[in-house]
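Give me the fold.
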Amino acid sequence: MGLISAVGLVLHPERTCASIVDTVVRWSRDRDAKVLGLAEEVARIGCEAVPVQAEEMNVSADLVVSLGGDGTMLRAMRLAVGGRAPVLGVNVGRLGFLAEIDMPDLPAALDAIDQHSFTVEPRSGVQVRFGTGLETALNDIVLLRSPGHRSAAVAVRVQGQPFVQYSADAIVVATPTGSTAYSFSAGGPIVSPNAEGLLVTPVAPHSAFNRSLFLSSGERLTLEILPSSGDLAIEADGRLVGEVFPGDVVEVTMLPGAARIVRLGQTTFYQRAQRKLQLSGSAEPT
């Protein structure tokens, strides 16, 4: 008996992906499986998927298929948090870190998944609590200097104890998944997705201490906005989700295994990172 009775689709916000959507619909029809699509996306492209809300897809789908790049994949992973469906990333356009296959490989990938011939890679998330706000991200949480305001001045507390203060344009708290995104652009290290912890990286730091921190998953992280700080915006996976001000406290918690990614054994994380970052195998001798 096949594994898949309902496939959920999450689409790139601009590309129609019509041909690849048709591929999923035909594959599902041949196996009496349903195709579920987010209502606003189904309306936009006019496909045969059953329109549902995110909550229903989370509960009903056996597999969530992301058609797009890393941004679409992150959205699909957030949608799948707390559900039972793993997420298959199908690369549409530029190569990303998270997608497992390219478009021509989708029918064979669906067959393999339906026959239980795949593995699941858990990915941790990060949750941020500020005032009455509570947000979840799979890549990172960012405290960002608001335009026209002073830099971010933030005290880092670990397990309730003060450790270091940063003064910077932004403070990034990234999961291992997010280590190759904004944190990496700011000079942070690449972290294996098999690691469990939170990576704290200052962006354009002005303080004497300008290095990243990597905290274990069980350690409690608190960020205190200092009196000398400007007003700060909070972003979760690049989405503006709120603001904090001098005197506010932000609590950050890691969510182990928040989402699960389908892996078919075609490439490793390091091969994808090597291609995406255009890394050579070794330095040339001088």
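The helical segments are 18-30, 39-45, 54-60, 70-80, 106-114, 182-185, 269-276.
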